Amino acid sequence: MRSYQNPEQVWKTVVVVSSIFVGGIAVLSSLFVVPAGEVGVVTTLGKVSEQPRQPGLNFKIPFIQSTHSFSVRTQVVPEKFSTLTKDLQVIEATATVKYAVKQSEAPRIYSTIATDDSAIYARVIQPSLLKSLKSVFSKYELDTIATDWNSISSLVQDSVSQELSKFDYVAVRGLDITGLQIAEEYRAAIEQKQIAQQQLLRAKTEVQIAEQEAIKFETLNRSLNDSVLYKLFLDKWDGKTQVVPSFSGGTTPPVIVGRN
Q1: pLDDT computed for residue 1 by the predictor
Q2: What is the pLDDT of residues 31-42, one digit of tens each?
Q3: How many CB atoms within 10 Å of residue 248?
Q4: 107 Cβ partners below 8 Å, 6+ apart?
Q5: How many helices (H) and strands (E) does the chain have?
Q6: Is 53 within 8 Å of 42 (Cβ atoms)?
Q7: Could you tell me the sign of the dihedral formed by the alpha carbons of 27, 29, 30, 35, in that order?
Q8: Which of the four pLDDT bands, split at 50, 70 and 90, describes residue 16?
Q9: What is the DSSP letter of 115?
């Protein structure tokens, strides 16, 4: 005889299995992992949560909340640029900026700037970097820039940091400016100017030495009266050389006449 299952029992089984299946999907959907070096931004039906999620296992409301990741590692991006100096000369170089997204600012970045990492540099870093580069280099002439490159680079880094601090999205970790390129004729002129400055400094040093020697000689000459000379003579006299002493109270110095 063939046996038939109770339809009600079959329906209950289907409901239980479906519930377990849906429940499993819901549990899995409520879990997400934020990798190391990143933070998670959670949105609830489009509304951005203010607190970013830290690396590790996190929970969210299934089907209602979505997650978006932002890297907080230090990024290194080279930027080639050209700009004008104070004396209207064109220079070219490469500015390599090192920056990192601030963890606490990831939700605000998602809300106002970019929904992923790829757009942060173009929309946040690059405009401020180029603005600072042009602002600093326009204050100095070409020869100053070429001869004091390290100081100028430090000024640019400070300017970039100050410019980005207005938005407070990222932290600048460093800025290297390399590969300065200027026209060959101006490079030669700068070298000639440096040589001329070195020669002028050397000449000034020699004049100062000569002036100091003249002062020493003049001072010594003023101090050498007859009494001092006589004392120096006595200190060196060997006791054998004959001398004609000066008269007491006279101004005539002793005279050397020969040896015994």
Answers
A1: 45
A2: 889 999 999 999
A3: 5
A4: 41, 48, 49, 50, 51, 52
A5: 8, 10
A6: yes
A7: positive
A8: low
A9: S
Residue type, 197: Q
Spatial contact of 134 and 159, defined as CB atoms under 8 Å apart: no
Structure tokens at 131: 């603005």
Give dist(CA 147, CA 191) in Å, integer: 10
Tokens describing residue 1:
């005889």
159: nearest Cα among 188, 137, 141, 144? 137
Report pTM: 0.61
The two three-digit tokens of residue 162, written as one number? 């100050």
Cα–Cα distances (Å) from 189 to 84, 110, 196, 253, in that order, read 18, 51, 11, 63
CB under 8 Å to 134, separation ≥6 — which residues?
Answer: 83, 84
205-242 b/e with 16+ CB inside 10 Å = b? eeeeeeeeeeeeeeeeeeeeeeeeeeeeeeeeeeeeee
Question: pLDDT of 190-232, one tens digit each?
Answer: 566 666 667 777 777 777 887 777 776 676 666 666 666 666 6
Q: What are 57's strand-pairing partners?
A: 33
- Sheet of 47-48: strand order equals 47-48, 38-44, 65-71
Query: What is the distance between the alpha carbons of residues 97 and 74, in angstroms, rounded to a whole number?
Result: 10
Q: Are strands 75-84 and 90-101 parallel, antiparallel or unpaired?
A: antiparallel
Distance separating the N- and C-terminal Cα atoms of the chain: 165
Could you read off the pLDDT of 73-107 as tens digits, one per residue? 999 999 999 999 998 888 899 999 999 999 999 99
User: Residue 2 pLDDT > 60, yes or no?
Assistant: no
